[in-house]
Please model this.
Amino acid sequence: MHRDFKPDNVLMGTDGRVRVTDFGLALRAADPEVERSEATASSGAAGSRRRGVAGTRGYQAPEVLAGGAVDARADQFAFCVSLHEALYGVRPFDEGFGEPPPPPRDVRVPARVRRALLRGLSLEPGARHASMDALLQDLAGAVGTSRLRRLGVAVLVVTVLAGVGVGPYKRWREGRACAEAASLTGLWDGTRRDAAARAFAALSTPFAADAWTRVEPLLGAYAIAWAVQTRNNCEATHVRAEQPDAQYRQRSLCLERRRDELRALGDLFAQADEEVVRGAVRAVQSLGSVNPCGPSAPAPASVGEDADSPALRAQVARARVLGGAGRYAQGAELAREAAERAVPGSPLQAEALLWLGILRGLAGDMGAAEKGLHEAVLAAERSRQRELVATAWTWLVNIVGVKQGRIEEGQRYARHAEAVLASLGDPARLTQELSMYVGQLSWRAGKAEEALQHLERALALQQREFGPGHVDQALTLHAMAGVQRGQARFAEAREVSQRALALREKLLGPDHPDVAASLDMLGTIAREMEEPATALALHQRALALRERVLGPEHPEVAMSANNLAIALTELGRLEEARPLLLRAVAIRERTLGPEHPEMGIVLNGLGVLAYLQHDYAGALGFLKRSLAIKEKSLDKDHPSIALTSCGIGVMLHRLGRQEEAWAWHQRALESRLKAFGERHDDVAYSLSEMGDVLRAQGRLAEAWRHYERALRIYRELGRDKVSTASGPLKGMAEVHLARGQGAEAAALFAQALKLLEASPAQATDIAETRFALARAWVAVGRREAALAEARRALEQLQAAGEPGRHLLGTVRQWLARHAPRAVAGRVP
Model:
């Protein structure tokens, strides 16, 4: 008895002889083992035989599976299962023991052969052929081989197949081999899925369970796509004979790389922590696409690789997967080791160097990243890997131009990348990445329209290449909203940011920390649109979400705390804002260091707070420190640099240092004109503040021209009803008042007051404008109207608390002069 007859154990040698192999479980007919239960038989080789019974599942007779006594008729059953599979392409009892399935219509088998086959497949041993010899005689007679002697079983199988057509059998065997090559067993099967599910479920982070429900179908779809491509590649050459062997090898190499990534990600998910779970969706969507492994797979490089290259390729795949999951340092170390062990000048070394540079950059080591990417360019050029060359140039745009603010170098690298991509036919997968970074680079250079063009192109390519549900699209939408906000296109920015929020909630879940970034962006836009209540609610949601899922000391918590503090300061709630700003500073200094670029943002917030508290010297110190940090990483004309420069000018003006103030305002205006052109909110604001400086210097005509120009911009933009448009109106009114034109001044002050009262302006701004109107009424002799406005201003300043304290004394003194009995008590 053979006890494990199956197609895999039937081989044909180069001499044309057919042999039955693998007699590891064979017993002689006289062996007592044949007559007793096999319930304690050896389990055999792992993965091919069930413990306690001999043979391979699918070919075993019912009595073998039942653990009862068996004899040679069990081999006869296995032989007939194999023959049925060879003739019809399926095993007869994979769905359970019962009636064999009807024969396919497109397969013609002689009736006598089928009758002999079905008898051998009888579930009762006694109903089968009396012996293998009897079965062979029936089959031999069925195919007309009357003179066939009693040859071996394998020879008869070939003879039967020759009678009904050997082509289908060969195609079946090759197809079966292709199916096994595409098997997901041990790669992404039930066992691997269960291990990952347990790891995700064991975490306490609020979004872990939700993350698994989103990740599992994504990774399952990727695994199926890999299996389909793998089987298609194999069958195209070995079954359908429509693909050359060289192309088969090209595609196989590509698919092996994707398999290594899939295996590495499965390993990572089985040991997932909070960091891995947070980046889980991105990690799956960062896996190399199987589409390039299709019939048009790139030709392999002519440079050879060492014998260990499959293991090294798997190591580079793990490095890439770790990067996609946020494990940058760990991935970089694997890439470094692979680069050192790879054959110098080989494609594998170039790929390892590329990922070493990318991962070091993602980990924040910009100098090492830049060096590594330049080495990757050279290695990829030597090995003629044009896609790797393009990717390295693209990442140099990001690392050098975007991250380090070296704009001209970044632009030069972008031209290199564009040239290589053009030679490759501008593949969408690579071109969208370059467009994203060039868009960010253009924004850093202050070129808003150019930035939007590149970002819109990136979004279109992402949608075409990845479909509508990819996390990179949310990043691109978020970047677009930031540029549009910088252009004062607030309604458009809100719509785009809402799209980013909806996409993140759909792909990542409502409790994912990336959702907070969209909430903060929407809050900032609401502030710009003078919707303080909406802004406050959005920033509060963002902070609560990040605290809940990331913990109170995470750097991203500092970002939301800073944004919430700004919203509170704009509402005049300074006492609530200050601890939030100090908390943001403490978190960032502790986690990022005192000179990190993000420190500039928090220091700017502290400057604004000090300004609102009328501590102009303190505000100036914060803003100058913020500027010093920003200048290390941003282009000199970046809008953020201009914002801080303008703020410095404002503080110097309040401190009476008008010449210095003018120089800083001039610098800010030049940058804003370069970035946005004439028609922009920030340009109008700079002009209005410069008018204040000129007026303080007694240069009233020049001041008037600046105010007038600012007001014209607001009107052309349709933003002459927002609170900032009150600035040039009040400035022009002050010029009238300085010239003794009280009536004209009163008219403009009244217009500014009406504008402020109609918008959600700060109470102190309204009170200050009301007091200015009182001064104008006095100038034209309307004493009662003046006193009424001054008294209301006093009430508003008292109600405002700390923000109004600076002006209370001035108003009290004014009232004391013009109505001595109207005011009593001391200035608090």
Q: What stands out?
A: The CA atoms of residues 99 and 784 lie 108 Å apart. The radius of gyration is 39 Å. The mean pLDDT is 86. DSSP finds 36 helices and two strands in the chain.
